[in-house]
Design brief:
The protein folds into 2 domains: 238 residues, UDP-N-acetylmuramoyl-L-alanine:D-glutamate ligase (3-Layer(aba) Sandwich); 163 residues, Alpha-Beta Complex (Protein-Tyrosine Phosphatase, Chain A), CATH 3.90.190.20. It has 16 helices and 15 strands. This is UDP-N-acetylmuramoyl-tripeptide--D-alanyl-D-alanine ligase.
């Protein structure tokens, strides 16, 4: 009986928040921009928010991209009032029919789709299923809006028929409205390229270390230009953007190696892009640390194939985590140190600390489960949280507790909350 009452209260609370969210969306005069795609949506959304911030008031919601967070964004933040010119929301699909409710609540004025790849295999199983799910964002476009679609991806381009709104395209295709050319990146030289559009040619310089970042960058740049942001402002704001933690983030501690940390996601299709980034680099010594692959389906072949590809690029390949033994590295590679098999982030960190050379390049590629970003953070911070599995999906820099032993996290957070409450109370009392 008690559980039924609790569930009833939860349902009533959820319906109330949903009502408030819908009302806030209906009353808002902001331009709502929804961004989805199998990869690149977080970077595209963050960069677009950064560009638009030079042109007006922006609220950007990325990473936390669920229906619950969208309802919270609308029912709490948007309801508080104040002028917001743009709302940028990253919409993720976690399974069939998860995108449609978000899209219909968001009612985007602009729908941006980066790419379609096979993700969440257990739920979607086919590319067509993924495309069908992402298509819901375009179908929910408000009258007078537009879809910004990847012209190089037929599954994305096919979404144009989901809405009567106009379609704008970007990509390397000659038919793209925003056509990309002259893509160059060879770390430490960052990504640069040119965009051909109705306003002429715009040369873009970015802070990204790899060529594959052109796609989310162009998605953001083209959307901003289409929304009327001046070209020079778009160019300048793109050049000053700081890449997100764990998503192609460069960390170069003084006197130490250069880390490219890509430890938020590791779907199979992203490995080739990350490895190519290392192959193009002009650094002499290169190492690759590979952790957990995303959407791992139990196949030994994926890790073995990844090792063969990484071995062609790097002087040493380090596998970490419970699947490290799946590399099928030869005994000769193991004996020579060409391949190293470790289990935990702490073991990888200790090994890198003992063997690192100044100005070598180390790629850290993994899903978020292992939090391998700690390997790079340990060069500039006193990392003391080395638990193998913490259960948190957010990165260590977002969590902010990596300098606190894991077993003390709960106590530390409680004490921090108490201090904040005391501070607010003293402020209210005028002390």
């Amino acid at each position: 009986m008690r559980n039924k009452r609790q569930k009833s209260r939860y349902d009533l609370g959820w319906r109330l928040r949903l009502y408030l969210a819908r009302r806030a969306r209906a009353r808002s005069k902001a331009t709502f921009i929804g961004i989805t795609g199998s990869s690149g949506k977080t970077t595209a959304g963050s960069l677009l928010g950064h560009i638009l911030a030079g042109h007006g008031s922006v609220y950007t919601q990325v990473l936390a991209n669920t229906m619950k967070l969208l309802v919270s964004t609308l029912s709490r933040r948007m309801r508080k009032g104040g002028q917001t010119d743009y709302v940028v929301f990253e919409a993720a699909a976690f399974g069939p029919d998860t995108m449609k409710p978000m899209a219909e609540l968001l009612r985007p004025d602009v729908a941006v789709v980066t790419m379609v790849r096979l993700e969440h295999r257990a739920s979607f199983k086919t590319l067509e299923s993924v495309a069908h799910e992402k298509r819901a964002l375009v179908a929910a476009l408000e009258p007078g809006g537009f879809a910004m679609l990847n012209a190089d991806d037929p599954h994305v381009l096919g979404m144009a028929s989901a809405s009567d709104c106009r379609t704008v395209t970007f990509g390397t295709s000659e038919r793209a409205d925003y056509r990309v050319s002259d893509i160059e990146a060879a770390y430490p030289k960052p990504l640069r390229f040119s965009i051909h559009w109705r306003g002429g040619v715009l040369d873009i310089e970015t802070p990204f270390p790899g060529a594959h970042f052109w796609l989310p960058t162009v998605a953001a740049v083209a959307t901003a230009l289409e929304l009327g942001v001046p070209a020079q402002m778009v160019k300048d704001r793109t050049a000053t953007f700081q890449p997100l933690e764990n998503r192609g983030q460069v960390l170069a501690p003084a006197g130490g190696p250069h880390f490219i940390v890509d430890a938020a996601k590791a779907p199979w299709h992203s490995l080739t892009l990350a490895f190519d980034m290392i192959a193009r680099s002009t650094f002499g010594r290169k190492r690759i640390v590979l952790g957990q692959l995303s959407d791992f389906a139990g196949s030994n072949r994926k890790y073995a194939d990844a090792y063969r590809s990484a071995r062609e690029i790097a002087d040493q390949v380090i596998y970490a985590g419970d699947h490290a033994h799946r590399s099928k590295a030869s005994q000769a590679d193991r004996d020579s140190g060409r391949f190293i098999e470790l289990r935990t982030a702490k073991e990888v960190s200790d090994y890198i600390a003992q063997t690192a050379q100044p100005d070598e390049l180390i790629l850290i590629k993994s899903s978020s489960s292992l939090h391998l970003e700690r390997v790079a953070l340990a060069w500039t911070h006193d990392v003391r949280c080395w638990v193998s599995v913490c259960g948190k999906t957010e990165g260590c820099e977002q969590c902010g507790l990596y300098e606190v032993p894991f077993e003390q996290h709960r106590k530390f957070v409680a004490q921090r909350k108490l201090k904040r409450r005391k501070h607010r109370l003293l402020r209210l009392l005028g002390r």
